Amino acid sequence: MQLEFFRKVTINRTVSVGTLAIVALLFLAVSGCKKKEAARADDGSGANPAGAVPTLPANANPVEKLLFQKAPVCYQCAKANCDEFVAGCVNIQGVAAEGPAKGKSKAELCSNTLGCVLKEKCVKGDASFKCYCGKLDGMDCLSKTTQDGVCRSVIEAGLESTEGGTIAKIWGERTLGAGAAMALTHCMIDHGCKACF
User: Engineered SS bond to 192: which of 18, 46, 90, 96, CB 3.0-4.6 Å?
Assistant: First the structure.
């Protein structure tokens, strides 16, 4: 559109420099307005706002409640893009077979892990591992037992292990409570649900 506009102006030699300058300024002003409108429409939540404020259904499950408590647009984005993972966290069957929370409901462990991640804001960019590793990076996190992430204890409980190397291998394993929570977390990261973090 810009090239076509400037091509026509260049061909028409009767257009004065002053007229050209005014038209160019008007073009830039309109472009700027459109960008501002687009920025207002996209609040960075990753959701596609339709103008309505999201509401929580009366029969909302525990995971939906956590997401909504974090921010209504967090809930909206997760439901719109990651509903399969929300359901996976709620409907995960069984109890932890190993680890510090042996015998505890996997669905509860999933909710606990997600609740910690949302509350503590430990996701940095696309790195959810900081929730477990804290200040440790790479191999240090895998080989040491000094992980200091704010959600370390709930992640270990939900992944049924206290060993960094094992935890790295099963991080998003959806058959484990914390694994289902981290799979949901990564879905929200991938879909730009910034309001959740």
Answer: 46
Residue among 57, 105, 106, 58 at smallest CA distance from 79: 57
Question: 172: closest CA among 96, 110, 121?
Answer: 110
Q: What pTM did the predictor assign? A: 0.74
In the chain, what are the domain boundaries? 2-41, 62-196
Q: For the chain, which ranges sit under pLDDT 50?
A: 1-42
What tokens appear for 12 in the block?
């028409």
pLDDT given at position 14: 40
Give the CA distances from residue 91 to residues 88, 113, 129, 183, in Å, rounded to whole numbers and listed in that order. Answer: 5, 15, 24, 14
CA–CA distance, 69 with 65 (Å, rounded to integer): 6
